[in-house]
Amino acid sequence: MRLKVLGAYGASDAEHNLTGYLIDDWFAVDAGTLTSKLSFAQQARVQAVFITHAHADHTRDLPHLIQNRFSLNGPPLTLFATREVMDQLSTHIFNGIHWPDFSTIPNPATSKPAVHYRALTPGKRITFGDIALTAINVHHQIPAAGVILEMNGQAMVFTGDTGPTNDIWKRTNKTDKVVAVVTEASFPNDQQRLADETAHLTPQTFGDELKKIVADAPIYASHRKIPFERDIESQIRNLRDRRARVLLEKNYTL
Ligand SMILES: [Zn+2]
Ligand SMILES: [Zn+2]
Question: Whose atoms come closest to the Cα of 57: which ligand?
């Protein structure tokens, strides 16, 4: 599996990008950064996006991806999210004020809308093309779910934003051939209280989550807040777990 990390931060500036991942060039997880780092041709190859939760740093580029899809006259983009998250996307983003609801607007050239919504039941594994996906609820300020993706006999796990959680690790531990886990460490250890109150992890609690995972695979901390990126990196290193890494904005082959 190829993982293109378009954005690996919980904040943005000229050199750091919001959460957005692309797997094998066609399946995206979160949309904080998609259109801003992909050409029109690359966007045209994206067939589906899984959204972990409705926060702006995970959805910023989604309206633009859908609008570009409309201009491209291509097949509809499939938008996956759990039912709860999908309801929030409809209410707060595709509400006709923040952005139109493109799922109800047929493209004159294709007679099809630019996007198709697929609401998922947490814990239920479904297939889409060559991929199987299972959304699992995690612990965040608003409804949020991670996803386990299985493709070509390998699996990758993305939690999105989360504080300490259990269900996704139980399911991860029952999944064969996990080649990578992408979770988060938003704040440094001295901001543990803020992390707890906002349902995020620090390197310390990231380390506790690691102990719940049996897979011998790299476990990446994403979503660092920019001013603390170096502190977080050194605290992750100090965990002395060889699986623990910080996620970088680059291409990984797993
Ligand atoms: Zn976030
Ligand atoms: Zn969030």
Answer: 1
Q: How confident is the model at residue 74 (pLDDT cuts 50, 70, 90)?
A: confident
Q: For 158-199, what is each residue's pLDDT tens digit?
A: 999 999 999 999 999 999 999 999 999 999 999 999 999 999
Q: Which residues of 187-203 are buried (b: 16+ CB within 10 A; e: fewer)?
A: bbbebbeebeeebbbbb
In the block, which residue shows the tokens 């259109």?
35
- Helix (H) / strand (E) element for 63: namely helix 62-72
pTM recorded for the entire structure: 0.98
What is the distance in A from the centroid of ligand 2 to the CA of 153? 30
Residue 106: pLDDT above 90?
yes
| Closest ligand to the CA of 224 | 1
Q: Is the pLDDT of residue 42 over 90?
A: yes
Q: Which ligand is nearest to the CA of 142?
A: 2
Q: What are phi and psi of 41, to 5 degrees?
A: -65, -40
In the reported structure, the alpha carbon of residue 168 is separated from the centroid of ligand 1 by a whole-number distance in angstroms of: 18
Distance 30 CA to ligand 2 centre (A): 11
Half-sphere exposure of 185 (CA within 13 A, CB side): 32
